[in-house]
Specification:
- Pfam families: BPD_transp_1.
- The protein is built from 16 helices and no strands.
- It is mostly helical.
- It has two domains: about 40 residues; about 220 residues, Orthogonal Bundle (MetI-like fold), CATH 1.10.3720.
- The radius of gyration is 24 Å and the shape is globular.
- The chain starts with a helix and ends with a helix.
Length: about 280
């Protein structure tokens, strides 16, 4: 009886926490599909009132948010590939005990994890390298995440050494072992770290705000911030059509368009995400 009561209380508590987490998203979704009259009168809660999709139509016609979404897709896709190309070989190399200076290089990576670069030196460096107003200013400062590198390094260290030894006896080179043996067996951790990088790049804000001034290159996070802070009429080129739509509805639609892609992709990678993190965090 006590166990059943405790289990029921736990379920109720988790249900309340889940509802509190989902409620803001459902509310914003409902506002984005509601009429201006319903939004002004405060009738919208969890379900659209006087359903219409004019806010989405106006945003699509205007094109600015879609252009920012395209920029974010480019930043995320290319950036994730660059980050993985840099992190994976580095983690694999540091996982080998025969590497000379392994302790020193590991300390250097750990030091960068504990002490970050100041904003002003980083800005001056980007300016000196002529990387301002380019996506490289977003990619290069965090090309290798120390945390992700250590998680992947731990995964590689947990792989059986006998596999590499047998491949070496068969005449395989280090590159052959890495590409033909290690990487095929590392799909869970590769998917997990790729997801880490992709989410971080999709949500990138500070670097884009500091290093990119060209409005044609802005990611969707900065564009969304501008839409939330400034009058809609000053941001949408189709201000004539926007005058018939409640600004809160346009802002809600912009938020949904921003978060929807990553929310749709995450469930398909969730199993790799959980498995990869567990395998990379606990050495077997």
């Amino acid at each position: 009886m006590v166990n059943r009561l405790g289990r029921t209380s736990l379920y109720v508590f988790l249900a309340v926490c889940g509802f509190m987490t989902v409620f803001p998203i459902l509310n914003i979704l409902a506002v984005s599909f509601s009429s201006s009259r319903a939004i002004i009168s405060g009738e919208v809660s969890l379900w659209p009132v006087e359903f219409n999709a004019q806010a989405y139509v106006q945003l699509i016609r205007d094109g600015q948010l879609l252009a920012a979404l395209k920029n974010t897709v480019i930043i995320t896709a290319a950036g994730t590939a660059l980050h993985m190309l840099a992190t994976t070989p580095a983690a694999y190399t540091l996982s080998k005990k025969r590497l000379r200076g392994r302790a020193f290089f590991t300390f250097v990576v750990l030091f960068s994890m504990l002490f970050g670069t100041g904003l002003i030196p980083l800005f001056l460096l980007m300016k000196q390298l002529q990387l301002l107003d380019s996506y490289w200013a977003i990619w290069l400062p965090g090309l290798v995440s120390a945390y992700n590198l250590f998680v992947m390094k731990s995964f590689f260290e947990g792989m059986p050494a006998e596999l590499e030894e047998s491949a070496t006896i068969d005449g395989a080179t280090d590159l052959s072992i890495f590409f033909r043996l290690t990487l095929p067996l590392s799909k869970p951790i590769l998917a997990a770290i790729s997801l880490f990088y992709a989410v971080a790049l999709w949500n990138t804000y500070s670097n884009a705000l500091y290093f990119i001034t060209d409005s044609r290159l802005l990611p969707v996070t900065v564009k969304l911030y501008q839409m939330l802070q400034m009058p809609i009429d000053s941001l949408l080129s189709g201000a004539e059509g926007a005058s018939y739509i409640q600004p809160e509805g346009l802002k809600a639609a912009a938020i949904i368009l921003t978060v929807a892609p990553i929310l749709l992709v995450y469930p398909f990678l969730q199993k790799h995400f959980v498995k990869g993190v567990l395998l990379g965090s606990v050495k077997g």
